[in-house]
Amino acid sequence: MPANLTRVALIQMSCSPDTQANLDKAVARVREAALAGAKLICLPELFRAQYFCQREDHALFATAEPIPGRSTAALSEVVREHSLVVIASLFERRAPGLYHNTAAILDHASTNPDNILGVYRKMHIPDDPLYYEKFYFTPGDIGFQAQKTSAGPIGTLVCWDQWYPEGARITALKGAETLFFPTAIGWHPSEKVEFGERQYDAWQTIQRAHAIANGVFVCAVNRVGHEHGDVTHNGVNMPGPGSHTPQDGLEFWGGSFIADPFGRILAKASHDKEEILYADLDSAEVETTRQHWPFLRDRRIDAYGGITSRFLD
Amino acid sequence: MPANLTRVALIQMSCSPDTQANLDKAVARVREAALAGAKLICLPELFRAQYFCQREDHALFATAEPIPGRSTAALSEVVREHSLVVIASLFERRAPGLYHNTAAILDHASTNPDNILGVYRKMHIPDDPLYYEKFYFTPGDIGFQAQKTSAGPIGTLVCWDQWYPEGARITALKGAETLFFPTAIGWHPSEKVEFGERQYDAWQTIQRAHAIANGVFVCAVNRVGHEHGDVTHNGVNMPGPGSHTPQDGLEFWGGSFIADPFGRILAKASHDKEEILYADLDSAEVETTRQHWPFLRDRRIDAYGGITSRFLD
């Protein structure tokens, strides 16, 4: 591959009730992507488990893990083996009673434990029917992050963050030229027919807009498949009170995509199948696009103070 | 029409070299829209002249006008006659040697001269081949603005502003529930075949994203037609040095559109014809959309300070 190109891979996968099986699958898919030439590989949000935030269950805190921990140890092996950068979204146990939705950025060039170059702790935490994340995740306290990886300058934001132009902007201002959004978003089965298409469209549109506004590549990677929120921990199924949610779970809509710095879709995955999505990103396109659409030049930083207000009434 | 609905109209028009003819046309189209039931009507950017920023010519400062002035006087007649709110984008002469690209918001319920409820002075000023606005327009110094009009709470931003999520966000935080973007954007004829579609698509995408991020209606109104930048002032044609630009002018791409608070297109105009674009906006949709997609609830205003930096290196 020409030196100016970096092959990225997004692992669109389904998650089973067995967390070890999910980790094994993730490692295998990362290896497969590496063998296909990818150097920068992103897993979906919280890929180790089914999306447990469909219910509020104290027992599920037991599935959180430290960073570094078992997941990063397993991934660091393939990271070193193939000289990779891998983004892994994990349920982080930071201290007793303090948990985050955290992305670990592993880089073979990093000498830290488990090759962890940096972490990002999800800043915007949702709370909606079947997405009860405020119960589990303390909002991030280290702000928006960019990393200079061996595969180029990147930034990671997680799922709900994707609806906030502020997060994308600050991450880009910190030097990220490719933004990753590990995601777990899906349809309520009862809503899909009426609202499904517009929901996916809005989700894609606002992330394409982050690419346009900032002149960066955007890579969104979602899980796929219908889940009732079952989770296995140490081999014991932990269905929580009521094994199935009354709304019949969530159908994760896949549709992972990669957009160029003007928001054009370079690659898009299906809505119902596991797949690895690839694109070869040309780092020169960031600067060329920004020269032709010089939005960063003309920002009115003297007039943006209101952004830090809740409302300006 | 039910009380919860407001009919908006966007006047997609072409502009001739004759500034008086353009004003007459604008007044006639506003009247036509009013007779069709519209209460909230927006004209395109700098509709009084052909897009003179295609060249840098000191003589063209003579076409600027005070606000209140001749244009607002003419429009205020139809505003009072039909109980309207009208947004008029004008080349404002604020003081000798100080000019702005300014939107005047006229409201029949306002008792100010010419029914001027408020003004917005374009904050982000472009400078690109054939868009030499930095030569003419001093950047706005009154920040982003929202107005409580008799037809609902609105905000106006102008053209290049549309590429900046910050402007839309602050305007929404000030209470605007419908954003207007009077615009003059077009294709370089030599680029249209290769880049035209993606340029229009990026333009529409980022504005739809403003609707989504903020849960507001977005109305973008563009001019249409091929122009070489000729301007007539007081009956004297002022073609400037070289009557035609070497690049053969600009083909304004029309394509005005109205999006709902989740970014869905409610109405879209053609790319090559004058027309009046209508939609009936339901003010209740703003709150309903924000309840289902509660982005404003979860903003991390403690972590957005970096937005006021040029770069975070």
Description:
The structure is a homodimer of 313-residue chains. With 313 residues, chain A is of the alpha+beta class. Chain A has one domain: Carbon-nitrogen hydrolase (Nitrilase/N-carbamoyl-D-aminoacid amidohydrolase), CATH 3.60.110. Chain A is built from six helices and 17 strands. Chain A has helices spanning 19-35, 70-82, 133-136, 165-173, 192-214, 284-292, and strands at 5-12, 40-42, 85-95, 98-107, 116-121, 146-149, 152-156, 178-183, 186-187, 217-222, 224-227, 232-233, 236-237, 250-253, 257-259, 265-268, 275-282. In chain A, helix 4 (165-173) packs parallel to helix 5. Chain A is globular and about 50 Å long. The model of chain A has no long low-confidence stretch (mean pLDDT 94). At the A-B interface, helix 4 and helix 5 of A face helix 4 and helix 5 of B.
Strand content of chain A: 25-35%
- C-alpha geometry of chain A: globular
CATH fold-level topology of chain A: Nitrilase/N-carbamoyl-D-aminoacid amidohydrolase
Cα gyration radius of chain A (Å): 19 Å
